[in-house]
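Hey L., structure's done. Input below.
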Amino acid sequence: MEQSVYQYLYNRPDLVNFVRQHPIWYRYLTRDPNVLAEMEKEAKVFYGKTLPQKLERIGNNVQMLQMLIQFAGAMKD
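Output:
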């Protein structure tokens, strides 16, 4: 693996963890360091950091809050 790629990964512990969990990326990065951007995209999907995933989480939290409010309202009656 090129020193620049190794240094970049060293500064990003989340990416190091991703590569450890998906060792095929060692091979990809060793053969072609230009796939680093693609690996970052895959890591974002893996960790749930994409915009649609964040919006889905927020939506789920809002639904949970609404259910709790309804449940609390039903308990008062």
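Residues 51-76 form the longest helix (26 residues). The chain has a mean pLDDT of 94.

-- N.
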